[in-house]
Amino acid sequence: MFEIAAAPTQGGGIVGLILPFVLMFVIFYFLLIRPQQKKQKTRNAMLGALKKGDKVVTIGGLHGTIMEITDDVVVLKVNDVTKLTFDRSSISHSVNTDSEA
How many structural domains is the chain composed of? Predict the structure, then answer.
């Protein structure tokens, strides 16, 4: 009286399960991972190009001029008297002054 119909089988079962995950990874790569890698590369290039006399801003917002620089330490001159020591990685960005160039 009651017949049980067999469930239809999918031909590409494993592909149907993996394809959404691969698609999500590709989207995350192009929207999140790749732009972050580019940003990190430009930041590392900026930190590598720092030299004595450059005007910089720290992550905390302190403006100063580089007096001494080593591989991992930067000494900034904040005013005529004050010199502060920072890690090189704490430099946010370099301030370009076109009038001096």
Answer: 2
Residue 93: how many other CB atoms lie within 10 Å? 12
Q: According to DSSP H, which parts of 29-94 are helical?
A: 34-48
Whether 69 and 51 have beta carbons less than 8 Å apart is answered as yes
Contacts of 67 (CB under 8 A, 6+ apart): 52, 75, 76, 77, 83
Structural domain includes residue 1: no
Amino acid at 49: A
pTM of the predicted structure, to 2 decimals: 0.68
pLDDT tens figures, 29-83: 999 999 999 999 999 999 999 999 999 999 999 999 999 999 999 999 999 999 9
